[in-house]
Amino acid sequence: MAQKATKSSEEAKPRLAETAMVIASTAAPAPSWFTPKRLLVIFCLINLINYVDRGTIASNGVNGSRTTCTDSGICTAGTGIQGEFHLNNFQDGVLSSAFMVGLLIASPVFASLAKSVSPFRLIGVGLSVWTFAIVGCACSLGFWSITIFRMLVGVGEASFISLAAPFIDDNAPTAQKTAWLAIFYMCIPSGYALGYVYGGVVGSHTNWRYAFVGEAILMLPFAILGFVMKPLQLKGFFHPESKKAVTAVETAVEEVQGADTYGISNGKGASYSMKKDMRNSTLQKSSKSKVASNIKNQISRFLNDMKVLLVDKVYVVNVLGYIAYNFVIGAYSYWGPKAGYNIYHMNDADTIFGGITIMSGILGTLAGGFLLDYMTNTISNAFKLLSAVTLIGGAFCFGAFCFKNMYVFLALFAIGELLVFATQGPVNYICLHCVKPSMRPLSMAISTVSIHLFGDVPSAPLVGVLQDAINNWRKTALILTAVFFPSALIWFIGIFLHSVDRFNEESEHQITTKTERSSTTPLLEGKKMETTESVAEP
């Protein structure tokens, strides 16, 4: 009897290996055709369009102006959104910040879902919502309708901002990680600047609504791409489809082994059939409790991850400095053209501010990334660079607004923006490398939510209120620019904190066996999974 059982077991091995290979080959995803550089280009284009929208709604051509009347009773009709919907400066500032509501709610959700859903599918969903919301902005009928659609724009953006940077960080060359991040974040000032020009041209020659229609057309192909392309893997996580493949193989192993075992004791396999029926019945009864348990586990995991972030001194100091920095940058981006028009009587403020921002943004952002790589990309060096460029750049911007000559202002302001934009690569490098790989999406999501919630979101309406109160754009600009100095001080403190680069640390979501470790390798490297070989080994 024992010899017969041994013989049956040996005969089962080839069948077991064959079954495993068939299931693994059909379930495991093939490597994506994307190379790292192609992925970087696609993410940069998406980011560019996203911030073109930010610049567009702030441009004089789309945002417009209120109806004004002189003491003699002569009135000038309002233009753009502000003129058509009769918005005051506070309402106009709220409109620029409305996206934050959607971003605040959706960012943690998308970051958490990345652990169980293909990240690129999530980006596809988000960009589809973004496209729909932009079309809604073009069709809005008043202040509340366009505000609601701007909130949905934030929902769409949430899926992208928390996942794009980790993908880029995974696949960038080790010695050029900050430079690649800088190229990606270069699209922020470039997008704003192009949005100023784009909105000014479209709004002044046609109607402000057409500017939004054009944005939706540009984003639609990328939304579709998120659904049709092969899934991409993110360091620190199971790939969802890979996980299904491994589970399917394990199930097949159990069934084959079970069939052999019970086939030995009962030639007709009656016991195996009974066990299978009982298992199916048990699974059906426990399905509801499993769903509730999964939701509870997701919430518990999110809260634990949030606790880890909030007690990480390096992360908190970095984000606090970023908030103060973004408070100024956000107000510059929204009120800059109007301030320039009123202080220096620029007839083409959209184009001038757009030109300065795009040149300073591109050169400054790239310079900051390459400079940190040259210094050796460490967290401590990143803090040194952040504090230095923000302090010096803030001083140049502050000095620029002190001069009455427009050309002196433009020269000093361009140098100042060149320096302050050098922060984009280093600040996001810290966010990605001071946490474990599995926490990077949440780290980026909370960072983005924080800099908007406490930075540029309140700064736009608060600057509007300040300007309404003192009615002096030069003083308003000087008060705003002074916030750069606390930002530099906060980042300076970060230099003295104990910091550890956690990029290569294992996380609770990573796999330690040969099979599981291979499944976390980014598809961009074109490496095939070793699931089949690992399962088939005797």
From TrEMBL:
Membrane topology: Multi-pass membrane protein
Highest taxon of the lineage: Eukaryota
Family the UniProt entry places it in: Belongs to the major facilitator superfamily. Spinster (TC 2.A.1.49) family.
GO annotation, cellular component aspect: membrane
Chain ranges passing through the membrane: 94-113, 120-143, 180-198, 210-229, 314-332, 352-375, 382-401, 407-430, 477-497
CDD domains hit by this protein: MFS_spinster_like
Residues of the Major facilitator superfamily (MFS) profile domain: 39-500
Keyword Protein biosynthesis: no
Protein name: Sphingolipid transporter spinster-like protein 2
Basic and acidic residues bias: start-end ranges: 508-517
Annotated region (Disordered), positions in chain: 508-538
Subcellular location field: Membrane
Gene Ontology MF annotations: transmembrane transporter activity
Keywords, comma-separated and alphabetical: Membrane, Transmembrane, Transmembrane helix, Transport
Main localisation: membrane
